[in-house]
Design goal:
- It comes from Rhizobium daejeonense.
- The strands form two sheets. Strands 4-3-5-6 form a four-stranded parallel beta sheet. It has a two-stranded antiparallel ribbon with strand order 1-2.
- It is globular, with a radius of gyration of 21 Å.
- The chain is an alpha/beta fold and 201 residues long.
- The termini are far apart.
- It folds into two domains: 49 residues, Helicase, Ruva Protein, domain 3, CATH 1.10.8; 107 residues, Dna Topoisomerase Vi A Subunit, Chain: A, domain 2.
- It contains seven helices and six strands; from the N terminus they run H-H-H-E-E-E-H-E-H-E-H-E-H.
Length: 201
């Protein structure tokens, strides 16, 4: 049995940090030690920031984004084209698309994908909110930007089926060869998708 080298407070900090995606037990120990060494510059401000986030962060009732206001900053931005809605699995996908800065559209966060094996059905996701949003009118295009996984494809088909009776254009993100990608290193599924989605030049 390993000997304890720190007090329970530090052990708890390490255990909690280890639950953050991308941090394992060893990385959590290094992060905890760094925070402790920089107690005044990092740990104090981080504790305050976490407290503020805990108190103020909300889920947007309109699109499912996380923010400190409801409706969120994206939904209340007058410069966005609210008639184009990009459907994403998670808030991290919304942030990734915003970093790319390719479109100035609205978003709808599903909160995951359909996965019958994991017990995730349509009622567990924000799909009804999307259908209601489109049914109200004012949305001319829905861009389905889910991951190219089996669950993502299943979710995309389900959404497409349920929006098909409404007056809205439904599009998907293109799948295929990434910028800078070499054909020899791509898997067969990606190459097949790229060939099916080929465009004229």
């Amino acid at each position: 049995m390993a000997k304890r080298v720190t007090g329970p407070e530090i052990e708890k900090l390490i255990q909690l940090l280890a639950k953050v995606p991308g941090l394992g037990p060893r990385s959590a120990r290094r992060a905890a030690l760094h925070l402790i060494k920089k107690k005044d510059q990092l740990m104090g401000p981080l504790a305050h920031a976490l407290g503020d986030a805990y108190d103020k962060v909300k889920i947007c009732s309109h699109c499912g984004n996380v923010d400190t206001s409801d409706p969120c900053t994206v939904c209340t931005d007058d410069r966005r084209d609210q008639s184009v809605v990009i459907v994403v699995e998670d808030v991290s996908d919304l942030w990734a698309l915003e970093r790319a800065g390719a479109m100035n559209a609205a978003y709808h966060v599903l909160g995951g994908t359909l996965s019958p094996l994991d017990g995730v059905g349509p009622d567990d996701l924000n799909i009804k909110g999307l259908i209601d949003r489109v049914a109200k009118g004012g949305v001319r295009e829905v861009i389905i930007a889910v991951n190219a996984t089996v669950e993502g494809q299943t979710t995309a088909h389900y959404i497409t089926d349920h929006l098909s009776g409404l007056d809205v254009r439904i599009t998907r993100l293109a799948h295929g060869v990434p910028v800078g990608g070499e054909l020899d290193y791509l898997d067969e599924g990606t190459l097949s998708a790229a060939l099916r989605a080929r465009t004229a030049i």
